[in-house]
Amino acid sequence: ATTSVLHHQTVPNFSEEVKIVLPTQVSDRHHLLFTFYHVSCEVKQGSKAGTSKKGHNIETVVGHAWLPLFQQNRLVVGEHQVSVSSSLPPGYLTHQPLGMGRGSAGPEIKWVDGGKQLFKVDLQLASTIYTKDQHLHNFFDHCQRMQGALSSASQDFEASNKLKLFREPELGVSSASPTLSYDQIMLRLLKSLHAVDVGTLINFLPTLFNQLIRLLPRTSNEDVALNAVRVLIHVVSAVQEANKEECLHSYIKYVFVTEISTGAKDKSVHEELAKNLTSLLRPANADVLVIGKFLHHSWFFFELIMKSMAQHLLSTGRIKMQRHERFSANLGFRMQNMVQAVVSHIVQKHREVPLPAKYGNESLAKFIKGCFSLMDRGFVFRLINNYMDNFNPGDPKVLQEYKFEFLRVICSHEHYIPLNLPLMRKQNTKSYKDMKHDYTLSEEFRKNHFLVGLLLHEEKMALNELNSQIRRCAISVLRNLLAKHAFDPRYQEKSKQARIASLYLPLITILLENKSRLDLSKPELPTPGSTNPSANGDAIHEENTSMKSSKSSEQAATPTTTTSASKARDPAVLAMISGVSSGNLNISGPKPMNGSTTSLASTGSSTQSNSQSVDGKLEKSEKTDKISHQSPRSSVFEQSFVYPAWLDVSKPLAVNLRRSRSLSASITQNGPSSPIGRHDRLEQPEVKDLLICFLSVVKNLSEDVLLGWFNNSSETDVIDFFAILDICVHQFKYQGKKRIYALSMIGDSRKALTLPPKRSSAMQQLAGGMQRAPSTYSEAGLHSTSNLGDHTPSASSMEAVHRTTLEGCLATEIGVITLDILSLYTVSFKSQLEYKDGDNPIMQKLFDLYMRFLSTNQSQTLLKHVFAALRAFLNKFPKVLFKGKAEMCGTFCYQILRCCNSRLLSIRQEACALIYLLMRTNFEFSRRESFTRVHLQMIISVSQLISDVVGLSGTRFQESLIFINSFANNDKAMQKTRFPTEVKDLTKRIRTVLMATSQMKEHQNDPEMLVDLQYSLAKSYASTPELRKTWLDSMARIHTNHGNHSEAAHCYLHEAALVAEYLKRRGSYPQGCSAFKKISANIETDEMGIKDDSGMQDVQYTEETLVEMLEKCCREVEKSERYEMLGDIYKLIIPIYEQKRD
């Protein structure tokens, strides 16, 4: 390269910039040579020289200068002044001044102007190979020297001994300085790297990382290795803070290659990195800043270890060996120590450095998950177990979230299912003792199925935590994992899904233990004076005076169905009662089961009924249902007014928080079966997520496994199992297209959505949305009605339609799952269900669950399956319906008659066909004599529907009666019997009852007139306890709904006197109704007219029934503030308690 010519300048200044491509390897002989020319402007006249001669005369060399590129083991940069030589002798690079007046070495050189430094030059380096930074250059140079020395040492052992001492003049070590070893120099250089600029670090990142990582297995000095790791942490942190994280990922993925160890004594990168990270995290070496940086960027080091391990296996061929032989025991020891050290810092510093602790926990989880692919699985399980040992029940919420995030990552391993050993057992279902650990969360189960056992154990512990966010975090991990299994293309076969579901069998036991907390319809805390209402339809309705929540689905959470003996009725006598003249056909029967308080036509779903209690523990009037949209109460809303059990309002907040944590730990350790009672309820999103998990498991279980669980579980557990299914049906009931669409378009979900629990469980969730986030279960792709209100008015109608479809599909699928399980149980355990003609708790629970489908809103599609299941039930258990207690048959008739009034023609046709089948089956069961029981229960049910002001006088119900007659007339097998005539007679009587009670329909909005009409009906049935009691019940409910507690109390008094008189006829209560004479003079005259005939054999009142009626009366008397009556009433109750020593 040449510069421009400067004319007549004594001190020329050349401003040209020249770019020079340097060789990859620059040595001491590489230099820049500058030649200076004098250019002649005039040529002498008369010169006869040739062209070349003239050219020589024009450019005359006046001097030379040279600048070595490599001095003191580094490239020269910056401004330099050099001397100019008048000539360029051979070997000019060897010329070196000796100093101290001793002359120079090398060839003799004639300097211009006495050797003054006349020439200045400025050098700028732009290189990714050679650095300008002094600290980084020193480190690279020393690494190169060490590498060369070690290389020669491997060839000459003596040379390695000579290399132990070395002087570094470039470090400023004078001749008087003590001799430094390689390790001491390296220690200095490593510490100096902390001063290197981050831009320089990024430019030389791969080379720097390679040298630092290569240093770990090659050095025997612990301080050097420890400081190398410190520098690695510093560099990684600096690069990531400069937003160059992709450089770190690129290095690990494309650049890093581990040191290949050839002998047993050779050190490996992964082992040394684990060892030195552990040393760095020890308390003796603990540096808060370094530890914080490491935790924040620990993913880099864990990925380095993983890749080093993988490359080590591939390069040595150990990948083909057994897993427990692949790595040395020393590596396992190092890794255990490292994991323990990391977890300890995560637990201890989660408050000081929350973000680094969180990232460190996630990185550790991913690292351990990756170890499954390379190491012995048993060793990895030990690492997981060691991690979990650092967490305890009652830990702060942050630590609990870390724990479940760790489990989430571990369980997301692609081979999670094989790791849990889902082995198929070949024993049959009767060998339960050998399979017991598969059904419960036993130690053996947790050993055989480690990961799923650990997850379920932590799930069980989390459910006992007081903090709902902890519970929700745990539930979401389980829910998302089950969803992943369901959509995993590798496990779509039914048999594979069954084997996966069998891994989660202990989840059933966990939910059984928390069953009472899943039922959101019951009050949060028990009230001291409350007692369970009778199961024959009586109820305590206190909505005007208390915040007590609805008990509409209380039966779903009770292990057995408490059935009052008073429910039994004799078909013979009640048949005679049903045959009275048309003027007296306003028959009222006891409500065998709480039915709808509203006409099926009044709502928009297929069954058009509100949510009701299957066991009949609460009834509501139509008026109450109409104002339910304005009612501010729901079970969720009420829970906010109940102080937690650990809260002492008289103590400071800090004291209460400490008590909360200690109680949480105590509850978690003791479990739900501990003496510590759990009165709190899970929140709506938690309940729905848990139920979805439960249904997912039982849906996919094979029949053999599920039957094995049933066959070897206690009666209480089986009942609780079906109680949870009952809760599922209630929680996921179908809302109807109009309702879901309307809620989807509502902008503010927190406005007027606190509907009573009886209306809809989804409404409870919407009401609870004021204080809770939306349901987490919708995040997994499963739609939750709790999120319907979260949409703004801008939500498209298409989205609303889509959500409606999802809602209907989910409700239908849950219903079908429940029906399948019911069918399986009824087929497999028919003899147990027929025990005592069906008068056993399990049969009662199953029957209540069947009726739940008819008493809650369901889609039209599901109801077709429900009617098919009911027909199968009817064919399987005619003995239960027609020989056992009449209660079940009455409930069956009541619910089917309600469906006969549905707006949907298909539902009415299905209901009519089922009623006809019920009649015919009863007729066949009685050897074709009659269907007395169904006849009587149909009349009673119609009377009950009328007393509840359900509109049966419309054309839809009349059409249903015509359908029933048509079935009877077209049944050729019954034409020669009296069956068609009896069916026609029954339908005629029903029409007569409807006509006779039409006056009650006209006065349904006039409570006084309505009560007066019901009183006249009750009085007309003074000789029949069951029908009279039904109308007295109805009167009491109406009085209670309107706050007339004194009148309601007298209705219950008359009921109690009726029961007392019945017991007198049976010899159980000698006083009879005369014992009430002192309380009310007209009781004796009104209630002593019952007739003791065969019709009373189906009515089985007991002293418990009498006490129950009197206690109801006492509560109403207290509300009416007529305390003077209480003494006389308690005088009737106390002798009974004394006799029973209760």
TrEMBL record:
Compositionally biased spans, kind Basic and acidic residues: 616-628
Keywords from the named record: Guanine-nucleotide releasing factor, Phosphoprotein
GO molecular function annotation: guanyl-nucleotide exchange factor activity
Domain DOCKER: from-to ranges: 1019-1142
Domain named C2 DOCK-type: residues: 1-126
Region (Disordered): 521-570, 583-631
Gene3D superfamilies assigned: 1.25.40.410, C2 domain (2.60.40.150)
Plastid as UniProt keyword: no
InterPro entries to which the protein is assigned, alphabetical: ARM-type_fold, C2_DOCK-type_domain, C2_domain_sf, DOCK, DOCK_C_lobe_A, DOCKER_dom, DOCKER_Lobe_A
Gene Ontology biological process terms from the UniProt entry: small GTPase-mediated signal transduction
Positions with biased composition (Low complexity): 552-566, 594-613
PANTHER family, A to Z: DEDICATOR OF CYTOKINESIS DOCK, ZIZIMIN, ISOFORM K
UniProt family annotation: Belongs to the DOCK family.
Protein name: Uncharacterized protein
Organism: Owenia fusiformis
